[in-house]
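ugh ok fine here u go
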Amino acid sequence: MPPSPTPSSRSSSSDPSSSPELRAWALRCLLDTDPVAKTGEVARMAAAWAAGACALDAGAALADSPAIPGRPARPELVSPASVGRRSMATAEGRAMLIHALAHIEFNAVNLALDALWRFPGMPEQYYADWLRVANEEATHYRLLAAHLATLGHAYGDFPGHDSLWEMVHKTRGDITARMALVPRTLEARGLDAVPPMRAKLAQAGDLAAAEILDIILRDEVGHVEIGNRWYRWLCEGQGLEPYGTYDELVEKYRAPVLKGPFNLEARRRAGFTEEEMARFAALSGARTKE
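structure:
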């Protein structure tokens, strides 16, 4: 389990002027609308934290903003059904898929930054974990955007949808719901979806894209594990039973119903329990029979 809340060894109260404060910095990054600037600033923030040149004030009251999340004017946001089909038989179809993945990763940067700044009073490790997620998602975005350029396109050339951020917004007032329904529900779907996408790209001859997806899957296991760990920590601290509470949160916030098939091995590595695996397997079997 994560450590119990203790005063941060990096508390900014000792010398507020000596170094930037992590959560306020994350909020500034979140408000940035330029993907290149945002992801570059996340990398600088992570480097400063690793070097001990960034303070943490876990108790600071930071002001919310209607400008959250900062994102560019393009891509156009449409319903998921309107995004379009992505045939691997054509270069444009592969570009559409890479663009969709870049859009997911850019939104994942924003959701990690939001988790980092929004919720006060958590242990230092919580903020370090979400900084790690933000930095790795920023790397994923840069890799995908660079590969998209080799296909003759840029981020914003195709439409995208906003399903991931919608759940981030819904759970902005409930950290337990955020941990339950964003990393361990919506992001966990990537553990299931990435391997078949990787196979299709490799079969189409796009080995560079396939290698990027290998990196994404490796890192996403860790991101989902962070969500699982902090969800259980929050449940324990509030005297909540994790499985029943999860079902209640799914209903309250109208989270998507889990559908198989599931990447059970990756989900185990991401910290799902054997009881949860049995539930996933049952769902997966039911879907296979349909």
